[in-house]
Each structure stands twice: as structure tokens, then as C-alpha cells.
């Protein structure tokens, strides 16, 4: 990997503009992004309700890397590299499950739920099981949400934990369940998928279903230009003691914002998708709490539901998008919510965004592509994301290059 070349691409970017072509389609840059960005960042990996009992696990992938998240007998949620310490076989296939222990399907090496090796048949007498436990992944839980980081020295997490606990706790995600989920393959670089998801410049024309409830005309970072309904909403949130922000650091942001006047949720008709509330203050009329993590996710929590979006890179021109819809665990499918329609309008929005991102990739691959300027009013979060990417990528390269631009010895 030629880090000096990648640094040259980063340095050639004009301030306020999209990225040079190679940063969107070069296989070497893609490999760099996996290590410098995804392996060094906090990622939103799932929800505690998905591993609600001891022995429950969820298996996911971060790019090509399999990760296992398990709730132990002590109730603690832990993350591990999903790779047997014998010959590296994947221990649990992608998805959810439950088991009293973790058993490798290859040679039956067996691990306790805390990752320690329990048994390994036919190994010599001097074999030390304590040296062969599963390799841990840094794992944090905040208000019912699971976060992981694959780095040896993860970014500081304390401010995120404190501020997100305060704003998200009223939504009671510890008592949620996944009502619906879907996975989409988007034939576009992960950065183009994220750029599309960080702005609503395109929403009015491309998302007619979402536009009924989502304030697609708001400027900057949910700026309503002094609109009366927005002022009233802010005052109500203060009265309800619901923290609204905005809060954040360079790698995350969160804010509670009002939906369009008269709308209670981001559904097809603006009415709650479920009769059972997750956040009870104000009778569920609390707008949406949006929070987003660079490099891959965003979520919206309304009074009765949560929508989660995650983008994981597969190849230079392919990204796997996972979407989940959560409701209160006591909500009954077919009684309190309709499992056939709860995914709208976000399902349609995801399909529309997939088509936009793929079309964007085709255009970026053109011989005539030249990076263009972002709108400082309509694409402020896109600019924030791209600036963050460039800064994080440059910092990684700085840490690897010597004073004369040569790689430090491994």
C-alpha cells in the first residue's frame, strides 16, 4: 500500500469539494480505508435486545472481518474476533443465535461465553488453554446500543457515553425488539453511500414518501430559519425534560428535531407505527432523535420506534447496507403494529438511495469526473463527513510515515 500516494490524493482535495476520483474507486485506497478508517473507529454494532439472555450472540462483519458479540453468564456483553484460536475457522455464522458455549464447527474447540478456552481435544500435555482464549474486541454499551472498535487504542469514548446516555435513555431501548430488518447490496463505494445518507439536498425530488414527514427543506444542521413550529417544539422539549442537543464531537453528532407540522412519526401517514410507545413523555409527540457515527451509521428514534442504518464496505464499488426497525418488546405484531408496513417509508428511501449512490458511482468513474463543491447550506453534514475522513486518513498516514516519508519499520 503506497501511503505516500494516498496522502497525495488527500492533499490534492480542494477545501469544500468532493474527493479526488481515486479515493472513490482505487482498490489500494479501499484496502487503506478498511485499516485506517473502519478498523480505527467506533462502530454501532447492534442492540442489547438482540443478545437479551446469557448465551445469546450476534455475528456480524466489519468489511471482511467477522465479529462475534455475546452476552455472558454474568450478563456482560463482550465482543470477540470470530476466529477460532486453533486454525482460524469462523465460530458462528452471520446472524443471531443462542448457545451455552461457543463451539468451533471445525475441530470442536470449545469456549466459555467469556471467551476463555474450555476444551481442546488431542492437544499435548504442555498445551496451556489460558493462552488460547478468543481475541477480544473493545465493546461498549450505551442506553441499549452496542458499540465496538477493532483498534488496539480506540478513540476516546467518555464524552459520547455521557452525552448519548442522557439523550437516548428516555427511549428505553433496553426493552426493545427488532420488528423488521433488511440488507441491501449497493454497487457504490462506501463513501458515496455515506455522503448520500448525510444530506437531504436530494430528498424533495427523490424521496416523496419520506418528504411527507421529514423536514427535507430545513437548512444546514436542522435549521428551520426561525419557524414558529420549531420554536414551539423546542419549548415543549424543555418542558418535557427531554434533552435535544445538538451534541457531538468530530466523529459523531446528535440532535432532536421536529418533524413536519402535524406529523408524529416518520411513517407513510405521519401517525405512530406502533400503539406501544418507547418514549412516553409528550404522548410520543417528540419529533426524532437523530444520531450518527462516522464512518458508517445513523439512527432515528421517534416516540414509538427506532430506525437504524449501517453501511459496511465490501469492495471498492460495493457496500452492504443493513437497516433495522425496533419497537417496544411488548408490542404485538398484527395487533400493535403491522409487520408488513412498518418498514415504510424508510424501505422505499433505501431503495431510492441505492439507485442514487450507484448512479453517482458510475459518474465518478467517468474520465470527465472533476470534484465539485458542496453546498455549505444543504450539504453541511456531507462536508463534515468528508473533512473527518480526510483528517482521520491523514492522521493515520502521519503515524505510519517517517520524517522523510518512508514507512516506519514494522
- Specify the CATH homologous superfamily of the largest domain: Naphthalene 1,2-dioxygenase Alpha Subunit, Chain A, domain 1
Order of helices and strands: HHHEEEEEEEEEEHEHHHHEEEEEEHH
Distance between the amino and carboxyl termini: 14 Å
> According to CATH, what is the class of the largest domain?
Alpha Beta
What are the segments in which pLDDT stays under 50 over at least 5 consecutive residues? 403-410
Radius of gyration, in angstroms, nearest whole number:
22 Å
Mean pLDDT, all residues: 96
Report the principal-axis shape.
globular
The counted number of beta strands is 17
Range of strand content: 15-25%
Instruction: Supply the number of helical segments.
Output: 10
Structural class: alpha+beta
Please state the second-level CATH architecture of the largest domain. Alpha-Beta Complex
The total domain count is 2
Helix content estimate: 10-25%
CATH topology of the largest domain: Naphthalene 1,2-dioxygenase Alpha Subunit, Chain A, domain 1
Keywords:
7-stranded antiparallel β-sheet; 410 residues; Naphthalene 1,2-dioxygenase Alpha Subunit, Chain A, domain 1; Rieske Iron-sulfur Protein; 17 strands
How would you portray this structure in words?
By secondary structure, the chain is of the alpha+beta class. It folds into two domains: 1-41 and 172-410, Naphthalene 1,2-dioxygenase Alpha Subunit, Chain A, domain 1; 43-149, Rieske [2Fe-2S] iron-sulphur domain (Rieske Iron-sulfur Protein), CATH 2.102.10. Helix content is 25%, strand content 24%. The protein is built from ten helices and 17 strands. Strands 1-10-9-4-3-2-5 form a seven-stranded antiparallel β-sheet. It has a seven-stranded antiparallel β-sheet with strand order 11-17-16-15-14-13-12, sandwiched between helices. Helix 5 packs antiparallel against helix 10. It is globular and about 75 Å long. The protein starts with a helix and ends in a 10-residue tail after the last helix. The relative contact order is 0.16.
